[in-house]
Design a protein that fits this description.
Elements lengths: L24 E5 L2 H11 L4 E5 L5 E8 L2 E7 L3 E5 L6 E9 L2 E5 L2 E5 L4 E4 L5 E5 L4 E8 H12 L12 E2 L5 H15 L1 H5 L1 H18 L5 H6 L7 H12 L7 H8 L3 H12 L3 H19 L6 H7 L5 H12 L3 H10 L1
């Protein structure tokens, strides 16, 4: 059983178990190349340098839609050089040990009281000491930008960059992590359901956007949109729960009990894009999760067809535009792991 350890500060204990299912163990190894390959599968290929001779690495992984909850320890003094993360953001929370983090022009020494928020577009270099053990939340950049655009009511015209250090034990982020850990331990089937995963995903992203300073913080405060009307929420939840179904604008409008015009106007105002563009974004994210995590998916074609992409050339172009790599490369990264 992998539990949240007692090494977190006693004044703000983390309750519950995390990733206790043995099926969530990605690897347990003393080999540097094996460790590099498996961590690269969940995150990205990178340079990993061991200082000294001791290494005992272990990683657990639990996907939640466009978000995943991870725990990683190297059991050795290592330097990690992935360059810019590119298509995902990481929030790293040490529960033991320290890590020296250089991200863009920012630098911190992360510890159990200071988490790190790694902006995807910034060059990254880290050195973890041999006792460093981290909880890590991974968020797809496309989902982060989609939720941010939904709050603003439009696509932002500037890059989203976060402050590197987070005093995570004294913010809403700590309560979120505790909730995720308890949910994964007590109700893993609920967490895995598409509709629930959608809500958890938006909860995670919304909490990060509101509790951690970033370049769009002032804009979000000044241009906060009112809550989306019921028909937008109904259609959004239906899309997440039935993204593999044949959905048309007419059937979505009928489901919500509004006209096509009202449906499109509601999505543009409160989500920053049309309902069909929203569906396409969700489907692309589902394909990516299958390519990265589902061993039963053995080809890009199978994943694309599963989520309603019949025109493979157009699908590949849209996938590359959203994630910065072709779908075959995503699948190859899982294979290398």
């Amino acid at each position: 059983m992998l539990q949240l350890p007692p090494t977190a500060p006693a004044q703000v204990p983390l309750a519950g178990a995390l990733l206790h299912d043995a099926a969530r163990l990605v690897f347990d190894s003393d080999d540097l190349d094996t460790t590099r390959a498996h961590v690269g599968t969940v995150f990205k290929p990178h340079r990993l340098t061991l200082h000294g001779k001791t290494l005992h690495a272990r990683m657990h992984h639990a996907p939640l839609g466009a978000v995943s909850f991870n725990r990683l320890a190297y059991g050795g003094d290592v330097t990690i050089e992935p360059g810019p993360l590119g298509d995902f953001l990481l929030v790293q929370m040490p529960v033991a040990g320290q890590a020296e983090i250089h991200c863009g022009g920012q630098h911190i020494v992360s510890s159990p009281t200071l988490a790190s928020v790694l902006t995807p577009s910034e060059p990254l270099r880290m050195r973890w000491n041999d006792s460093n053990d981290q909880l890590i939340v991974r968020i797809e950049r496309s989902a982060l930008e989609r939720v941010c655009a939904a709050y603003l009511g439009r696509r932002p015209n500037q890059a989203l960059r976060f402050a590197l250090g987070m005093d995570w034990q004294h913010t809403g982020w700590h309560a979120l992590v505790r909730f995720l850990a308890d949910t994964l331990a007590a109700a893993p089937a609920v967490a895995a359901h598409p509709l629930t995963a959608c809500q958890l995903e938006q909860f995670v992203i919304g909490t990060l956007l509101t509790c951690q300073p970033h370049t769009l913080s002032d804009m979000l405060r000044q241009h906060g949109k009112p809550l989306a009307p019921r028909h937008v929420k109904v259609v959004e939840e239906h899309i997440h729960a039935h993204a593999d179904a044949a959905l048309t604008p007419a059937c979505l409008a009928e489901l919500a009990g509004v006209s096509l015009r009202s449906l499109y106007a509601g999505f543009r105002e409160h989500r920053g894009l049309s309902p069909m563009a929203y569906l396409r974004t969700v489907r692309l994210e589902r394909v990516r999760q299958d390519l990265l995590n589902d061993a039963a998916v053995t080809s890009v074609t199978a994943a694309a067809l599963r989520w309603g992409f019949a025109h493979l050339g157009r699908f590949s172009a849209e996938y590359r535009r959203q994630f910065g790599e072709c779908p075959a490369e995503t699948l190859r990264r899982r294979g290398r792991g």
